[in-house]
Specification:
Strand content: 5-15%
Number of helices: 33
Number of strands: 9
Strand order of the largest sheet: 1-2-3-4-6-5
Shape: globular
């Protein structure tokens, strides 16, 4: 059973702002009608008071005490809101993890419960700042964080994607993977960690138990960023202490993590080094007779790890050097990024020189000879091949060094920005204030504007892109667009307008223009870069996903401008690319097919549109995509068609299922949620459930205005519904004003004979009929019906609705001056 956690948190913070003596009275007044609420807030206040003591305890002692806690496990069948406990999956330092059924979405999830010792108040305070960022991580190798809730006792728990798979180390052992196979699998793990680092999220607890490998051999990382949510806030203690979150798995902790210092991406590099060491040798880097947390921490801080080749001779050489570089005590001497770590492994697998070894002539030559030993058959050929190889390798390494230097500068800058929040490295943060993500981005922007990387446009361009997309993900579209413009300009200056890198940058800018509502500018830019995108896609320089996203955006723009036929051609082009999509991107196909269905309906092909929408939903179900936002999108499209057809039971069911998905996975102001609510409002209106319709429509309008503004193509449709509801509830004059506003929007943005204009005029005509202004309603209803007959056909549900309204006019009009009855 869940609680209204936001209300508890609100009163908790308000109480903290009062002096100690006034808190009890304020709490009684704020919760006067709700004793349970008062108890929850009181629990949080007591937990908050205990945080100070928590920080003063020695970290290892606290760790041992907490691990010794034995909470009662929840029995199978226990209900927590929509979740029903199936079984206990496991228990660890943070708490217990349960497998649960999600009754709303028909899926299984993992519920991670937090131990009492962590302090519930700290989690609640950081939830809004951090959870959305973690939930936005959308990588196929990262298990999703769906949200956070709490029990009636105030115990918080995380709702996470359930991954059915084996632990990484067990998977490798059970299948007896070779060294190279383990390295390839490990590189997929690195790719996921690198993706999160680019979004300014550090894992903090990388270990085999947090990496599961599915039956198809794909790794999934669990608990990404959860340790950060469980970390208590910075304080002004005289010396840093190690929080429980920072010491939950000492075997894989970095030296700075053991010491309680601020963690950066280098901490994850170290943990990955331990992980790979264990995968390749079956042993840990430090030999200890006993395994107490204190001895492990001492070894991590002071002892040098044993070379992996001591355990397996075949690892001598490059793999020794790669692992030992990742495990260096000093963060600045490790790999500068997880991407660089992974790249060195790739180079090892390809027989290329690795940066973890000294860059000597003999080393490069030996690597070259090893790669080409079959071709070296005579002494003269050896000499010529060696000479050519040295030249080729030197050129290759010069290019690699340039890219390496670029990556190093970028990662060093990002690490510096991450350290901006560290009170021990940044004196301005020693007042205990906690910087937000926006603060960090603002600081990064300031440093770039002050001239950082002025002489390195390639580095500056990549940083502009990272900062721009980060601003955009935070909801600051204006600053996001500004940095992306800088990114495109720098790419064009460096490589020229026709280079694939500049083309990709321009496509990113077009996407942001489209997202910001600047439709005309987005269309102009997309049309300019689309031929180049198609050409580069044929050459293999850009991915199918990138080309498809551009085609879908342009198709959507053309549809909103009234050109449904061109929109249809773009959508069908995307569907022909289906076999080329990566598995993790196939969700785009369902979305494309659903939007194609809407486009077909625009062209009057309602039966084909309904069938296409059904196929999209069936395809996503067959591919197991029912827990994804894209599935909710397809349900929303199908539900709208079912409502138009008059099948309200099936339509409402699909729409409510889609709404539940959006409420769990998306922002409360996401346009897809607004579209879903708008379709529900239309359904309730047609069923005569006007109060419910008004509630849904009002929320949809609010979402549209907050997320996109009145230029959003479905905004006038929601206005029409609002006006019609007012007309049906005795407020026809107010309804008429709103309907006229919607007609104006449609007329100004679309051709006068577009069916959306006709639908808007038709709604206004119904309102005028209600008001008894029959002569004014007649031309509107007549022209609308004729237009819809031409564009959609007489059997389309919207045409039939126009016919009904026209018939109603003639029923109510005692003496029609125009003799319009014969027109129907």
């Amino acid at each position: 059973m869940s609680i209204h956690w936001e209300r508890v948190e609100e009163i908790f913070h308000a109480t903290l702002e009062r002096p100690d003596k006034a808190r009890a009275a304020f709490l009684r007044e704020a919760c006067s009608q709700d004793g349970a609420l008062a108890n929850q807030v009181a629990d949080m206040l007591r937990a908050h008071a205990a945080v100070g003591d928590f920080l003063e305890q020695p970290a290892l002692e606290l760790h041992a005490e907490t691990l010794a806690e034995e909470d009662d496990a929840l029995p199978a069948g226990t209900s927590l809101g929509v979740y029903r406990i199936v079984s206990l999956l496991g228990a660890g330092g943070m708490g217990k993890v349960y497998l649960a059924d999600d009754a709303e979405l028909g899926r299984q999830v993992a519920l991670k419960f937090v131990r009492h010792g962590f302090g519930r108040a700290g989690i609640a305070r950081q939830l809004r700042q951090e959870a959305r960022i973690l939930a936005s991580l959308n990588d196929p190798h990262i298990a999703r964080l769906y949200g956070v809730a709490a029990t009636v006792e105030g115990i918080p728990y995380f709702i996470m994607e359930y991954v059915d798979g084996e632990r990484l180390d067990q998977y490798c052992r059970n299948r007896r993977l070779t060294t190279n196979e383990r390295l390839e699998l490990f590189r997929k793990v690195c790719a996921a960690v690198s993706y999160a680092h680019r979004h300014l999220v550090i894992h903090r607890d990388l270990k085999p138990a947090n990496i599961r490998v599915t039956q198809d051999g794909e790794p999934k990382l669990l608990d990404f960023g959860i340790a950060k949510l469980l970390d208590v806030e910075p304080t002004q203690t005289s010396a840093p202490t190690m929080t429980l979150a920072g010491m939950m798995t000492p075997d894989y902790a970095s030296p700075e993590q053991v010491r309680g210092e601020t963690m950066t991406t280098a901490s994850d590099v170290y943990s990955l080094g331990v992980l790979l060491y264990e995968l390749l040798t079956g042993e840990r880097p430090y030999r200890r007779i006993t395994r107490t947390p204190h001895e492990i921490a001492q070894a991590v801080s002071q002892e040098e790890p044993s070379p992996p080749s001591l355990h397996r001779r075949e690892l001598v050489g490059d793999l020794d050097n790669i692992l030992l570089m990742a495990l260096r005590k000093e963060p600045e001497r490790r790999y500068l990024s997880v991407g660089q770590f992974s790249e060195d492994i790739r180079r090892y697998l390809a027989g290329l020189p690795v940066i973890a070894r000294g860059d000597t002539w003999s080393y490069r030559s030996a690597k070259f000879l090893r790669r080409h030993r079959v071709a070296v058959t005579a002494a003269a050929l050896v000499l010529l091949t060696l000479l050519g190889g040295i030249i080729a390798t030197s050129w290759e390494e010069r290019a690699a060094r340039r890219e390496k230097a670029k990556a190093e500068h970028i990662n060093a800058f990002l690490e510096e920005i991450l350290n901006y929040a560290n009170p021990y490295l940044n004196p301005s943060r020693r007042n205990g204030s906690v910087p937000t993500t926006s603060d960090v981005l603002d600081e990064a922007t300031k440093r770039l504007d002050d001239g950082a990387f002025a002489d390195e446009p390639g580095v500056r361009a990549e940083l502009e892109r990272i900062i721009g997309m980060s601003y955009y993900s935070q909801g600051n579209r204006q600053l996001g667009a500004q940095h992306i413009r800088n990114f495109v300009q720098l790419q064009g200056n460096s490589y020229g307008p026709d280079d694939p890198r500049t083309v990709l940058a321009s496509a990113t800018q077009a996407m942001l223009l489209f997202a910001n509502g600047d439709i005309a500018a987005a269309e102009k830019l997309y049309r300019r870069v689309l031929p180049a995108l198609r050409s580069e896609h044929r050459r293999g320089e850009i991915t199918t996903d990138t080309l498809s996203e551009a085609l879908c955006d342009l198709a959507y723009i053309r549809r909103t401008q009234g050109d449904s036929r061109e929109a249809e051609s773009f959508f069908r082009e995307v569907l022909t690319l289906g076999p080329e999509f990566r598995p993790q991107s196939r969700y785009l196909l369902g979305m494309t097919q659903s939007t194609l269905a809407s486009t077909l309906a625009d062209e009057g092909k309602f039966a084909e549109a309904l069938q296409t929408a059904r196929q999209a939903v069936a395809m996503e179900r067959a591919e197991g995509e029912t827990g994804m936002p894209a599935y909710g999108f397809s349900l929303t499209i199908l539900g709208g068609f079912l409502v138009d057809q008059g099948d309200f039971a099936a339509g409402d069911k699909a729409l409510k299922e889609g709404e539940a998905i959006f409420r769990k996975l998306l922002s409360p102001t996401h346009l897809w949620l607004g579209d879903n609510l708008r379709n529900q409002a239309i359904s309730y209106y047609q069923q005569g459930r006007f109060a419910e319709a008004q509630t849904k429509d009002a929320e949809a309008l609010r979402i549209y205005l907050e997320s996109f503004g009145p230029k959003y193509d479905n905004y006038p449709t929601a206005l029409l519904t609002k006006g019609l509801i007012l007309n049906k509830t005795g407020q026809s004059s107010q309804g008429e004003a709103i309907l006229r506003s919607a007609v104006k929007m449609r007329t100004e943005s679309l051709p006068k004979d577009h069916f959306w204009v006709a639908i808007a005029n038709d709604a206004l005509g119904e309102c005028l009929t209600t008001e008894g202004r029959f002569a004014e309603a007649d031309p509107l209803l007549t022209r609308s019906y004729e237009t819809l007959c031409r564009s959609l056909g007489p059997q389309d549900p919207r045409t039939k609705e126009a016919a009904r309204r026209l018939a109603l006019l003639y029923e109510r009009w005692p003496e029609p001056e125009s003799g319009g009855k014969s027109r129907l």
